[in-house]
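Researcher: Structure prediction, please.
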Amino acid sequence: MIRKFCHTQPKVLSFVEEMQKNFIPTNNFQRAILSVGSAAVALLNPYRGDMIACLGEITGESSLKYMRGKMFETTEGAKILTEQPRINSQTVCFETLSKMPERSIGRVYADFMTDNNITADSRLPVQFISDPELAYVMQRYREVHDLVHAILFMKTTMLGEVTVKWIEGIQTKLPMCIGGGIWGAARLKPKHRQLYLKHYLPWAITIGNNSKFLQGVYFEKRWDQDIEDFHKEMNITRLSIK
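Model: Predicted structure follows.
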């Protein structure tokens, strides 16, 4: 069991309960202001996660519907939408994951979070999406973002973030991901820009188009799966720079 080495966890709110607690109603004018304002701040400071999150919610409705449809296409994705699992310190025991075999998805994820000093509780709750199912799709996207980094062996540097954003943008159609890929690349230093254009961008486009839909992967059911077997199943090839 995932909580094998963890202390007893407190009762976790259902997603709908949490969503209703955090929801902020907005009219069309307010959404327009939020869209322009969050986009401007995010462009000036790509590390403002709150503004990027806001932009994603305000501009992502059609993309979230597309993502929901893609998830319903597979048994695994449909199960995620039905069960609405969460990935945070209350639902996942990272102590247990860190003790799993070195090449397992759980261990790769736990090591990534430790190496990059990231907590699974750092993702903001959805606030501006009224449809509970679409709100969950957005929350799920946020909570598996670090997992996507981990299974692709992409660091949290600007180069790594831009690369993952391209893959996510191609697969999810989220405007914030596509915009992040474009504007983030413009901030790369000359040396990294060369690597990006020659290796990272072509690889990201290939993975985004050819791999299975990563938002529809029930990672929590796959913690013990070997990462190489996972890559083969998902049609993922690791980036290799010679």
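Model: The first helix runs from residue 15 to 22.
Researcher: Thanks, that helps.
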